[in-house]
Amino acid sequence: MDELLAAHADVLYRYALRMVRDRQQAEDLTQETLLRGWRQRAKLREPAAARVWLLRIATNIHRDGLRIAKPTAALAFEPTCGSVGVEGRLEQRETVDAVMAALDELPARQRQVIHLVTIEQLTHDDAAAVLEISVDALKASLSLARRTMRERLKPIFDEVRGARTE
Hints:
The protein has 2 domains: 2-63, Orthogonal Bundle (Rna Polymerase Sigma Factor, Chain: A), CATH 1.10.1740; 86-161, Arc Repressor Mutant, subunit A. The chain is 69% helix and 0% strand. The chain has helices at residues 2-7, 9-20, 23-39, 50-63, 86-105, 108-119, 124-131, 135-152, 154-161. The chain is globular, with a radius of gyration of 18 Å. The termini are far apart.
C-alpha cells in the first residue's frame, strides 16, 4: 500500500496545486490525502482505481474545510526547452505565465475539470467520479473552461498559428 500511495503523490500534488494555488497548502492537502488514503486503505477494492480514489479523497478534503484563502503570489512555472536562446526563453516564460494566469482565473470547478481531463488525462467518467458529478455536468464545465481559455489566450493562439493581429 505504501508503494501504491507513493506512486500517486505527484498526481495528487499537481491536482492540489491547481485547486489551492499555493505550494505549501498543496503540500498539506497532498499529505492529508495520503494519510486518509492510508487510514481508509481497506475501502480500496481495486488497486487499479487508486488514482481516481485518491483524487476523490483530495477533492472531498478540499471541499470539507481545507479551503484556505487564495494565495497572494502567482505560481511560477519554468519552460523546459533548452535549445532556445534567452529571448526565446523569455517569450516562452511569458506564454506559460499567461496560460497559468488564465487557468487560475477560471472558477474552481472549471479549473478542476480542465486539470483532471487535460493534465491528468482522466477519462470523462473517471473525472466525473472524482468530482462526484455527472458526466454531462463535467462535459459542460469542460466546454466552458475551454471556451474561456480560448478567449483569454486568443492573442497567443493567433501569434503561434501566424494569424494577423490588428
